[in-house]
Queue: 3 jobs
Job 1
Amino acid sequence: MSDKRLNNQLTLAFPTEDMGEALRAVEGSVESLAANRPVESPGMGEQLMEAVCEWSNIQQAVRRVKRNHGSAGVDGMTVHHLPAYLKQHWPTLRAHLLAGTYVPSPVKPVEIPKSEGGRRRLGIPTVVDRCLQQAVLQVLQGDWDRTFSAHSYGFRPGRSAHQAVEQAQRYLADGYYWVVDLDLEKFFDRVGHDKLMARLAQRISDKRVLKLIRAFLRAGVLANGVVSPRRAGTPQGGPLSPLLSNIVLDELDREVAQRGLRFVRYADDCQIYVRSRRAGLRVLASLTRFLARRLKLHVNQQKSAVGLGATRRFLGFSFTASREPKRRIAPAALRRCKRRIRGVTRRTRGVSIGRMARDLTRYLRGWHGYFGRCQTPSVLHRLEEWVRRRLRSVIWTQWKRGRGRFAALRKRGVGLALAARTAGSSHGPWRLAQSLALKIALPKVSFDSLGMPRLTVRR
């Protein structure tokens, strides 16, 4: 990559961890220690940028960026080209960082579908900027993370969505049946830069690092050859955005903890647990005012609500209404899963059953890695049966006509009369997928041989 390209990048100014075990909740008074902790820890030193630029820190950042893959930014550079690029240009980049003159490139706008409908806007930085954001994150995270709330679980080392769901489950089991579900409207687009930078300046004394973070926040969006400025928000798509969002919402955590309320927060998903609907409505109203006044954030009135725990969902899970509530897969999450499986196993897709099974296995392993922790195995059993029925109907279609179907059934051990009756049936593939003949010809073990995971067996 040429020095001219590097200079253009430097002068272009525009002012989804491993799942850990669930942590045990503190008994009695919720988060009394967190509520009484010092507001801020001592400021970070004047030589913070030197720590960011340590070659070992940069190498670690490169490994993380490569592991996360991700698409190229506006300059077209991929993660595979990053090591060679840094090897050649790192001395110049380091000099600009230490002098406080580095200017990030604009981000590339990308929209992805949201699970509940609609579109989510992302801003994809160049891989060089992603590497530098990761390097800053690695230096800042340890100092900030130890002061965050014990009930904040999103984007934090050693914490996971499963831990957040299990904590919510414990609150329901303790009798806090009413849930205040807070949904922040376009949170990542509305974070105020000045307020965030003031919060950072309380702990960071190295003005070069503060200037770099502000530059990342204000990096323009390049679309159709035009760079548009960004005056608010922490653009999703960069490694630094999750930490900055936790820094903003830590003020909400402190407020809820000081009120003695039981709560769980994962990124901008926050639920508070109380004993009555009246208390829930009071908490929702007061926190809505707090967020608007102190953080300049708006609560989505259509999605925020107070309801019984069994009627609300959290991070893809819901809970049974029993005295000892159990985790179950939320109906919306199950519908999304089935919609994805239908797309992969479409009979008119025109791929081999081996290719279809590989695509399906890749999706199901990831899905089961998250939702396999539900406590309602009957749901997983029914889903597993449904997937096999989908595949049997595909295979039946690929066997084409009666003579070929008869031969395939006989080859797989189906009796003469049953094979003839099934091959000559006028019923469609979906109905015949449940027939005795196809269950004999295509038993569970035949799908095991294709690499299909068993959803009801933990591996």
Note: Residues 1-42 have pLDDT under 50 and may be disordered.
Job 2
Amino acid sequence: MMTDSKKWVACWGNATSITNRREAVYAKDLTLRYPIRMPFGGSMLRFRFSNLTGTEPVTLSKVFVGHTPVTFGGEKNVCLMPGRETESDAISYPVNRGDTIEVSFYLADYTQMNSGTLVTGPLSKGYYAYGDFAETDELPIDLSRHTNWYYFLNTVDVLTSPENHAIVCYGDSITAQSWPDYMAQLAFGSHVAIIRRAVSGTRILRQYDCITYQAYGLKGATRFPIEMNVAGASDVIIQHGINDIIHPVGEDVNPFRPWSDLPTVEEMERGVEDIYVKPAKAMGLKVWSGTLLPIFGWRTYNEDRDAMRQQFNEWLRTSPIFDGCVDFDAAVRSTTNPKAFADGFDSGDHLHPSERAYEAMAQAAVHKLIRHMPRYDHEESF
């Protein structure tokens, strides 16, 4: 659905993956609420919900944005079929840049909570409450808690001005953490929305099919075509591949992590080109490589793995198949020991960055992709 001189653009999004398998995987009589800050204004909204990795139907008994019901084929509830994504009706809901909308939905009956993803960052904090509070202004403090698990809600689109567009940040746990949120903050006031498509533990070429590691997500060839369903996307930043390098340890150490899973650098390069770059180019997108971060001190670190990372990074920096490179490695590494994070940039596990480092990553991405983009000089009304 479009009107003259307007188009649909994704203004918020996460990936959907298999959630971490625990003793309890069902919920009942639960309200989930997710606040979303609007990067630009628009006149209508539509919502995509995903049960991509579920094995049972999921019923959303009611869905609201603020006090406005979200409908699906005119109905106020919807059944999300396993392995499928479902889009709502477009609803009239005028928003301005900087508004925070709240998407709330109620799960009345026993619900398999197997489709979602864990994300963090200054713009990523949801809530849940026991009971039906989808239509209320406030969740009762004694029945609710914060959560960084985003269940079922996958994408929000806004009908907006034609100059607005989306940049997709695609990756693993590095991207599931804070840098896309910091990038969104830095880009605020431009015509850009930042859409995160990231799942912790994922690899380019492999995936786990055991319940121990199912939450590490789908392999690239399975993920990418689904996750790149992003209205109004113009660019994608791909920061992916470190788990291909660090996961294999041999079946004598871990039966689910055989050495046969360890690719060559050439196989990783070919995978990125065939699985990511060629399809993205066919979608008309600019494709930006993101270099892999230091791993010195990580529990499976060795010199051979780091040599793979360095060789892969050199290809990411120089290959002509990309429109450019966001050199995240250069933004966070130590000047005296380039194999390691700079002081204050290591979260402590020697794999994931600190918040300061995530801010540096966001600055590097904004410098490459947004510095020449025109900024708003007024707020358009819808």
Note: The two ends are 16 Å apart (CA to CA).
Job 3
Amino acid sequence: MPVSLSTLALGLTIGLLQAAPPGDPLAASTTQLVERVSEAYRACGQQPTFPATVEVQTHPALVSYQFTDRTMRVSRYEELPPEMQGLMSAWANTAGQPSGASLFGDIFNSLLVPHEMGHWMQHISRRAITLDRWESEVEANRIAIAYWSLDAEDAARLPARIEAFSGFLGQLPDPVPDGEDPRAYFNEHYESFDAAQYGWFQGAFMREAWARRAESGFCDLARLNAAAPIEAFANDPAS
């Protein structure tokens, strides 16, 4: 779905964050959340080998981490096209949220930010090279769930937030043909999916991650994704 792009560069880095532009609540909240996840990673004894950039930039993926330029991007609800805002309003009604803006902020500007930080960890550990796309997405969700489980108040809210995300997406038509393994089918055909098909898989990734939440704590996953030596990035296109 086409989105009018409006870029606001924050000029911040994970591990050493500069001040967010004054008067921009999304920039400020993203800065704070990224730094909290980064601090949790360091508290597990891990150290990043290089910074990652974060930008507020409204884009079709809504929230993403790009390996090519080491940038995490979050979108602004007010800049979404009307049809996307309508979808968020319908989703909010299903999830019991007061508005599409509220739901969008809770999911795409909050819940899933540590998911994208999980992809950042996979990148700096170089595990992104070895994981298939299904496991990469599931593990990023496991990292997000583990992060939101660190604080008692966040943990108490987490089941409802996960249900709001995966429950709605689970209502989309299942794109996997009868008799096909969902993981194998996704890994083989992911480039051909439309938004609804990919959305169904995102719900599947979150449901699997939620079912596996007792397997590993945040530090277990941080150690699994310990930063590789800087020499490992000699041929990295972003280096």
Note: The longest strand covers residues 7-13.
